[in-house]
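thread from #wetlab-drylab

HS: before we spend reagent money on co-crystallization trials with adenosine-5'-diphosphate, can we at least see a predicted complex? here's what I'd submit
DV: go for it
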Amino acid sequence: MADVLLKNISKSYDGKTNVVESVSFEFKDKEFVVLVGPSGCGKSTVLRMIAGLEEITGGDLLIDNKRVNDLLPKDRDIAMVFQNYALYPHMTVYQNMAFGLKLKKMSRKEIDQRVQKAAAILDIIPLLDRRPKAMSGGQRQRVAIGRAIVRNPKVFLFDEPLSNLDAKLRVQMRVELQKLHKKLQATIIYVTHDQTEAMTLGDRIIVLKDGIVMQIGSPMKLYNQPDNIFVAGFIGSPPVNFIPGMIKRTDTLNFIHESTGFNVNLSDIPNKAIAGFEDKKVILGIRPEDIYSKPQINSGPFAKLSTTCIAIEQMGSEMLVYAALDEKQIIARFSPESKIEMGKRVDLFVDTGRVHFFDPETESVIR
Ligand code: ADP
């Protein structure tokens, strides 16, 4: 398997604007890396450049220390699994999986061994004689993956492989993909717009926005230490709540949200950089699970935000409470037994040890 290195990779389709802007990243051998971001941010373009399906405008692409910018796709030892599976409808599963190997003039025996082995890994041996038409979306997806496995590539590329599946099957396939990665011990580069897939599958995640890398890190690093407003608002569901306010000094340094009087005493917060924002606007970020219906023992201190409940979603395992904040809302994750009523006052207790602050001008975290 392989190390893949992107050095300042850029892409322009029209020769004027870059849709991918100087992306640098090292995919380590056997690593499962997820490229995530909203539609149009350049994820597929990056993947297609790695595969060799799209010309690289600037920068270097190295696989195992060898520059491969100008290598043809077939010579890169990379297999790509597409969103629409791209199976041949007139061929059986076996033939679909064997096709690429036949083109390479591999012996029948070798082809058969590889197809049988991949089919066993994917649990699709009973399907080998079927045609794609007679299979479910999940089964077709497996065949598409099988076609990649038989090639024994250095790197697997997945382009939104689960987006055509229904919600339940997607969850199942997420688990399957984790198991598959373990079995194959392969380098996997996986593109999705779905932050849940990124969180659950990635050893590391690259968050892209408008062709620019916003942050790279492990799922928990991105979740707990977002570098900017974009990542805080993208990773996690529901995402981080944002509360605009000012840093003011009275006896102590405080964050103040004017219309509610919500006040966070910053003296206990180990964030030295915030002192530089005295008399300036900042944005406070807090995750829904760090807001409680009452102060908790063994954590805190807490800052109270009194507002009105505008909606409740009872999930069974938790209750999502939507509370008014100026023209917007903030969401808190309460225990399902909480006594909250729609339209009534609700007190939100914000764990001040868990707040983030962002600079509204640069949108970067203040830390
Ligand atoms: P994503 O995979 O994140 O949805 P893409 O990589 O498909 O994003 O697209 C990134 C940007 O490049 C978009 O603005 C898209 O319209 C543009 N783009 C993608 N493919 C082409 C192409 N073949 N020609 C011109 N523009 C393209």
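DV: The chain has eight helices and 20 strands.
HS: ok that's useful, forwarding to the group
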